Amino acid sequence: MASLRSFLRSGKNAVSVVLRREFSKTSPAAVQVNVRDALNQAMDEELERDERVFLLGEEVAQYDGAYKVSRGLWKKYGDKRIIDTPITEMGFAGIAVGAAFAGLRPICEFMTWNFSMQAIDQVINSAAKTYYMSAGFQTVPIVFRGPNGSSAGVAAQHSQCFAAWYGHCPGLKVVSPWNSEDARGLLKAAIRDDNPVVFLENEMMYGVPFELSEEMMHKDFVIPIGKAKVERQGTHITLVSHSRCVGFCLDAAAVLAKEGVECEVVNLRTIRPLDVDTIEASVMKTGNLVTVEGGWPQYGVGAEICARIMEVNIGPSLYRFQAQRSTTWMLLQ
User: Fold this and answer.
1) C-alpha Rg value of the chain to the nearest Å
2) Which among 46, 58, 89, 181 is annotated as catalytic?
């Protein structure tokens, strides 16, 4: 009524006021989504999109997953799409690989990647090498996923990072997400890929929330596998990392910025194929490189990155930092 009385008094001016109120052009606010829910949303949307997709693993169905990543999926899709398995990684990984050979698109969850050692013959000799040796003729559209790397109080047998292990093997794509954007976009891309994909999550990141834009929440939002992302621009030092250690790099960059040192932080996102071009471009700008990871130093992801950068004759100062031991190795000065 107030708008109508204003219109009667002032004519066109009142119309413009009403239009401004009704047709706001303000962009919708980003929503907070933790990594666990981002993974859950990605699987839910892909299960709905493609009836060939199914999830199997220990406690993924009625218990909603050991880490609740598959929460609610069994109630929505039932026993044929969300399948609880016996505690035998070799057995259910083999079933998943066979299903991929037959044209289905399984998501095979390991309760932790340390247990994938029981199934490494299926992951490497069956999934990776079949697709590789057939030159792509026999597709193997399977995603092996689960928590990777060190957690809290789980001892050495449950703390290994398998990025370098599986990144070594032809025929596999190896993905290592950091935040909710990575988790959501990369898992959807992995499920749609015809290659076998190793998807290395981090248990300590599951409950960490990140902002997701409206674009990132779209059902067809995917992140290309094999493309790194510069999370922070800098001019003095390049920090290259993946998974949880990306957050450590951003924290370190914030501290160093107060001392006048501007770090550029590169989030690898993918271990294989490795986005050397993005790393090289950053090091060309900064002249210095530090790699940060939670894996073992010998033959590690950081060692591979340092070797690749040396091959392009940039001649920077190279360091490799292993976050688990908080120790730095100087490779070249």
Assistant:
1) 23
2) 89
